[in-house]
Specification:
This protein is mainly alpha-helical and 306 residues long. The protein has a domain of 180 residues: Alpha/alpha barrel (Glycosyltransferase), CATH 1.50.10. The protein has twelve helices and three strands. Strands 1-2-3 form a three-stranded antiparallel sheet. The longest helix has 20 residues. The radius of gyration is 20 Å and the shape is globular. The two termini are 32 Å apart. Its EC number is 3.2.1.101. This is mannan endo-1,6-alpha-mannosidase. InterPro entries: 6-hairpin_glycosidase_sf, Glyco_hydro_76, Mannan-1_6-alpha_mannosidase.
Length: 306
């Protein structure tokens, strides 16, 4: 993902969403107005896509949107279908998730080689995971969504790099792309989230073990700091001894989401309170009295809301 600076694509998306949102009419307590507003937003997303689907192939939104942002859009549209029952976008969503999976169902299509990073691949895997969790229809003769997500997980696990810095995923998959020397937090966070969601979906202990391994390395490398702030990344060029202390909310959110899932399926991986620690890192309450008790109450409520 290209998030070392605020993405022009995200800026464009925010601007266009603001224009659409300004025209929405939502009445508090009226589900019909909410449904209509959500429909307008989904139509806006699809109008951007429809202008490009015959140019770059199924699943790709036009520039300035990055490949990974296309994956986020389809993930959202799966949830849109699940929550509203509106099937009007299903055919396009199915085609997108299928075509971008590539020949090996691993979300490494050959036409995106210059854009494929570990976090980008994981983004598409999480979209497939959402489809599996939501029961999104699988077209005939197509690989099940969950199997695609597992294939990506296996490819990410195979790239776990113990030769440099004792572990972690590099940002770039291929050595010829920028970022190959960088180990960024979002790659670890999305791998962690994918492992947690697969653990819940399959009941396989292996995924829990990988989630714990990823979390442990993220802590020991300093990507997750002393007070659980999540930092952007570190470089193998200096053996991961220096950090880029930039913080991105979506990175902490990905760790938090995976942690909340783990909290629902295992009380304490390897004897630690991993879910509590990560969730605590994004709750904006001071840790000192008298707020510490309020913070603990909030955490307990989150973990007990199953």
């Amino acid at each position: 993902m290209r998030c070392h600076s605020f993405s022009p694509a995200l800026a464009a998306l925010v601007a266009s969403s603001a224009k659409v949102a300004a025209g929405l009419n939502i009445t508090n307590g009226d589900p019909d107005t909410l449904s209509l507003a959500v429909k307008q937003l989904s139509n806006g997303v699809m109008s951007i896509y429809s202008d490009n689907r015959d140019v770059d192939g199924a699943g790709i939104f036009p520039k300035p949107y990055y490949w990974w942002e296309s994956g986020v859009a389809w993930d959202t549209l799966v949830n849109y279908w699940y929550l509203t029952g509106d099937t009007s976008n299903n055919a396009a969503t199915q085609a997108a998730l299928a075509q971008q999976a590539g020949e090996d169902d691993d979300y490494l299509p050959t036409n995106q080689t210059l854009h494929e990073m570990n976090d980008d691949q994981a983004t598409w895997a999480l979209a497939a995971m959402t489809a599996a969790e939501r029961g999104f229809p699988v077209p005939a003769d197509q690989t099940p969504w969950e199997e695609m997500a597992r294939t990506v997980f296996d490819s990410l696990a195979a790239r776990w790099d113990t030769s440099n810095c004792g572990g972690g995923l590099r940002w770039s998959i291929f050595s010829f792309n920028a970022g190959y020397e960088y180990k960024n937090a979002i790659s670890q966070a999305m791998f962690f989230q994918l492992a947690a969601r697969l653990a819940r979906f399959t009941g396989n202990q292996t995924y829990i073990d990988w989630a714990a391994r990823t979390y442990d390395w993220s802590r020991s490398s300093g990507l997750i700091g002393e007070h659980f702030a999540v930092y952007d990344g570190t470089s193998v060029s200096d053996n991961c001894t220096r950090l880029d202390h930039t913080q991105w909310s979506y990175t902490a959110a990905s760790f938090a989401y995976g942690s909340a899932i783990l909290a629902n399926i295992v009380s304490s991986p390897n004897g630690r309170i991993l879910p509590l620690e990560i969730i605590a890192s994004i709750i904006p309450l001071p840790v000192s009295p008298p707020f510490s008790s309020l913070r603990q109450t909030t955490l307990t409520h989150i973990l007990d809301s199953r």
